[in-house]
Design goal:
This protein has about 425 residues and is mostly helical. The protein folds into three domains: about 230 residues, Ras guanine-nucleotide exchange factors catalytic domain (Son of Sevenless (SoS) protein, Chain S, domain 2, Orthogonal Bundle), CATH 1.10.840; about 80 residues, EF-hand (Recoverin, domain 1), CATH 1.10.238.10; about 60 residues, Wheat Germ Agglutinin (Isolectin 2), domain 1 (2-Layer Sandwich). Helix content is about 50%, strand content about 5%. The strands form three sheets. Strands 5-6-7 form a three-stranded antiparallel β-sheet, with no helix packed on it. A two-stranded antiparallel sheet has the order 1-2. A hairpin with a 3-residue loop joins strand 1 and strand 2.
């Protein structure tokens, strides 16, 4: 695999709307292969014996990446305000899926097609009415390829015909390991070790390990890798995704209530596995992404980019998270962008599980101080935030309560307000 540091990196856009589907497929494949290569022989063996990913963090992160990609596809479609725009994003991801298929990256293909087939998307009748018929035809072909019918028979035939680089659907092959381990006895007659079973299991695992030695022929742009990495850190629950879906296209009150249906392609064998980045990792991902943004958009090298460029970059993420004050008219500073994405990433990565405050915006007519930093709320009419539960007052919504989470020190600097 051509890494991000070999030779002069090719120039690519950091804006989702400007990216070619093949470029997006390349960079998703780069992230997928990098994650796949971290899984060791022992990791596969431990999973086979325990039948769960507990205490196998490398494998858990790999599955979380796949699930995160599937969610990201759904959220990017739902982030567009009109049915026509949602259909365009849907079509773009279908073209990404075609590129992934051509590259034999079946694991990411499963994630992307699974996202497009998810009932939070398939229920959007206005959106699907704008999807061209030829796109729908290709999607049906993809779902047939990845269908679980006859134990993924169509996928297995396609996979066996591939030579060279390929990334398997990890869940299918992990299930195969468990099936073989449970179907064959550990011992044969005279209490002898079943050598045949050991050989079969070894061959299964070794085949996966050998695939790690065949990198894809692509040249990843590290700036785009940084942006995608941060995008995939975000996590929404199923209920939150359905709320977004219903907000885009409300239920038809005349139609009978429907329950979410199982999509034809689903990534549910490890659906409980979600991205779990810690605050330090989030901070690292944000800093790398911000560095990449300023390298590409701060043409004057003065520490600012235009607000228009910032909005285009923010649109490459599923949703806008807040509005920021600008130090300079029409411009956004490095510090403001860093705070924006730190705030957004912590919220959407569900790092605030110990966050007990329930804030609402409040106006104060008398001298008032912030309970977090003791700072004075300025102005004749003071704007701040009050917790409905314990009545704490803050100049801004901090990321976590310091008395509960001493380890989480990466809060947004005091004085920056969330509107």
């Amino acid at each position: 695999m051509s890494g991000t540091g070999h030779g002069r990196p090719r120039k690519v856009s950091l804006l989702f709307d400007h990216l070619e589907p093949s470029e997006l497929a390349d960079h998703l494949t780069y992230l997928e292969f990098k994650s796949f290569c971290r899984i060791s022989f022992l990791d596969f063996q431990n999973y086979m014996q325990s039948c769960c990913m507990k205490d196998i963090p490398v494998l858990e992160r790999s599955i979380a990446l796949c699930n995160g990609m599937s969610q990201w596809v759904q959220l990017m479609v739902l982030s567009r305000p009109t049915a026509q725009l949602r259909a365009e994003v849907f079509t773009k991801f279908l073209h990404v899926a075609q590129s992934l298929h051509q590259m034999h990256n079946y694991n990411t293909l499963m994630a992307v097609v699974g996202g497009l087939c998810h009932s939070s998307i398939s229920r959007l009748k206005d959106t699907t009415s704008h999807v061209p018929s030829e796109v729908t035809k290709v999607l049906n072909e993809m779902t047939d390829l990845l269908s679980s019918c006859r134990n993924y028979d169509n996928y297995r035939h396609a996979y066996s015909r591939c030579s060279g680089f390929k990334i398997p659907i990890l869940g299918v092959h992990l299930k195969d390991l468990i099936t073989v381990n449970e179907a064959m006895s550990d011992y044969v007659e005279d209490n002898k070790v079943n050598v045949h079973k050991l050989q079969v299991l070894y061959n299964h695992i070794n085949e996966l390990i050998q695939l790690q030695q065949i990198p894809p022929r692509l040249d990843a742009n590290k700036d785009l890798v940084h942006l995608l990495t941060l995008s995939l850190d975000l996590y929404y629950s199923e209920d939150e995704i359905y709320e977004l879906s219903y907000a885009r296209e409300p239920k038809n009150c005349k139609a009978p209530p429907s329950t979410p249906s199982k999509p034809p392609v689903c990534v549910d064998w490890a659906s409980g596995v979600a991205p779990k980045p810690d605050p330090r990792t989030i901070s690292k991902h944000v800093q790398r992404m911000v560095d990449s943004v300023f390298k590409n958009y701060d043409h004057d090298e003065n520490g600012f980019i235009s607000h228009d460029d910032f909005e285009k970059i923010a649109a490459s993420f599923p949703f806008s998270f807040c509005v920021m004050d600008k130090e300079k008219e029409g411009m956004v500073s490095r510090e403001e962008i860093t705070a924006y994405f730190m705030r957004a990433s912590v919220i959407c990565s569900k790092l605030g599980l110990g966050f007990v405050h329930n804030f609402q915006e409040a106006t104060y007519m008398k001298p008032t101080f912030c309970d977090n930093c003791s700072g004075f709320l300025w102005g004749v009419i003071k704007q701040g935030y009050r917790c409905k539960g314990n009545h704490y007052i803050f100049t801004h919504v901090i990321l976590a309560c310091e008395s509960l989470t001493e380890t989480m020190m990466q809060t947004v600097s005091c004085g920056e307000q969330v509107r």
